[in-house]
Amino acid sequence: MTEGLRLRVDRRSPVPLYHQIATQLAEAIDDGTLPAGTKLENEIALADQLGLSRPTMRRAIEELVGKGLLVRKRGVGTQVVHGRMRRELELTSLYDDLAAEGRTPSTSVLVNRVEPAPADVAEQLGLAPGSDVRRLERVRRAGGAPLALLRNWLPADVLTAEDDELESRGLYELLRERGVHLRIARQRIGARGSTAAEGELLDVAPGQALLTMQRTAYGDSGRAVEYGDHCYRPDSYSIEVTVVER
Fold first, then answer.
1. Is the distance from CB of 213 to CB of 226 less than 8 angstroms?
2. In this structure, is the dihedral angle defined by the CA atoms of residues 58, 60, 64 and 69, taken in order, positive or negative?
3. Parallel/antiparallel/unpaired status of strands 237-240 and 85-88
């Protein structure tokens, strides 16, 4: 068995055996015991070591494959893809956070154009309806696996960026380079089912729950310079909040 990994099953527990194993493997991936790229022993060997049936072990592995934590590769075996991305509530971009954790972020740009602002976006940015805004839509990946669908709108005069810049760098990094420094943001966290289009982009089933975040960020002058409406795979992403007594 993988060094440092100790799996145990409780046959008296009402929790199905396959789910006990899947939960322990997910925790080991989450806490770094099984880092990205780790190869697991084959299902037969794992089943034998734990005294389980092959179908039970197979179901445990399939549960994690379905969550995007493991991948099966022909000729390689079962391999850890990535752990869950934890993000503290700070005014940073997802690209910055992934890079800081040593993950390898990559981006596909779906939309990058100037267009009239919809009424709700104009309200968030403090603009007149129909004002020109730059609309961005991107899929962010970590270790090659889809993690988030990012939709952003910025006043048209704030940022001009080519697709290759947006693919190789974070949005907030590009803003800082252009002298735009974000100081404060208003943010809302929620959840909802994915649309068919979002499911295809994030490799989840239509209607599967997604974590959502809407953020309006303000610069030094107090001007709203960015509004984001993002959704994330909850099996790969979480947000941590520190609370204090007042």
1. no
2. negative
3. parallel
Question: How far is residue 106 from each of residues 82, 146, 167, 191, measured CA to CA in Å?
Answer: 14, 9, 7, 24
**pTM for the whole structure:** 0.61
Instruction: Give the number of C-alpha atoms closer than 13 A to the C-alpha of residue 181, restricted to the C-beta side.
Output: 4
What sign does the dihedral 60-201-103-150 (CA atoms) show? negative
Using the Cα atoms of residue 36, residue 42, residue 43 and residue 46 in order, give the sign of their dihedral: negative
Residues 6+ apart with CB under 8 A from 45: none
Percent of the chain with pLDDT over 90: 32
Q: How far apart are CA 118 and CA 188, in angstroms?
A: 19
| Nearest partner of 123 among 114, 112, 131, 134, judged by Cα | 131
> Given this model, what pLDDT does residue 149 score?
94
Tell me the one-letter amino acid at 79: Q
Q: Work out whether strand 70-73 and strand 224-232 pair parallel, antiparallel, or are unpaired.
A: unpaired
Q: How many CB atoms lie within 10 A of CB 173?
A: 15
What is the per-residue pLDDT across 93-144, written as a single tens digit (0 to 9) for each?
A: 566 566 555 556 789 999 999 999 999 999 999 999 999 999 999 998 887 7
Residue 82 and residue 36 in contact, taking contact as beta carbons nearer than 8 Å: yes
